[in-house]
Amino acid sequence: MIPTRRTLLSGGLAAAAWGLSARAQVPALAVDGFLPFEVSPSRLRLAPSPADPASTLSYAGATPGPLLRLKKGEELKLRLVNKLAEPTALSFPGLRAANASAGYGGLTQPRLQPGASADIRFSPPDSGFNLYLPHAGATDAGQQGRGLFGPIIVEEANKVDADQDVAIVLSDWSLDERGQIKDDFGDPALARGPGRKGGLVFANGEAAPLRVSARPGARIRLRLGNAATARLTNVGIDGARTFIVAVDGQPSEPFEPLRNQFPMGPGARFELMVDMPRASGASVRLALKGDAGAPDQAFVTIVTDGEPVPERGAAPGLAANPLLPAEIALEASRRYDFTVSGGGAAPFALNGVTFVDWSPKPAFVIPRGAPSVFAIANKTAVVQAMRLGGHVARLLHSMDDGWEPYWRDTILIQPGRTAHVAFVADNPGKWPIESAIPEHRAAGVGGWFQVG
Question: In which domain, by residue range, is 87 found?
Answer without folding.
Answer: 5-155
